[in-house]
Amino acid sequence: MTEDEIILIAQQAHFNSKTWIDIYNDGITTGEVRGYLQAFAYLVAAKALAQPQRTWVGLTEDEIIGCTCECIDQGKFNMDCAIDFAKAIEAKLKELNT
Length: 98
Prior knowledge:
It is a single chain. The chain has helices at 3-12, 20-25, 30-50, 61-66, 70-73, 79-97. The protein is mainly α. It folds into 2 domains: 3-50; 61-97, no CATH class. Helix 1 crosses helix 3. The longest helix is centred in the middle third of the chain and has 21 residues, at 30-50. The mean pLDDT is 76.
């Protein structure tokens, strides 16, 4: 959700760019503020649920093998290799799913 979409939703929930000081000075009750916040939360949730769900793309065996580092190929495996391998898998999954 973009910042502009969030601002539009806040306006729909009747925040109308009010600051907490404005709300205090205007004598708006806690119940009214609670109503604004509930409306805002409902609209944000509705917007989020309306977004199409993406299909998760996993890695093929060849892609996983392509993420291995040289130390694995040499038959050694230590914590540095594990971290490098995990970061490579993470990067590949982000590339495929964003």
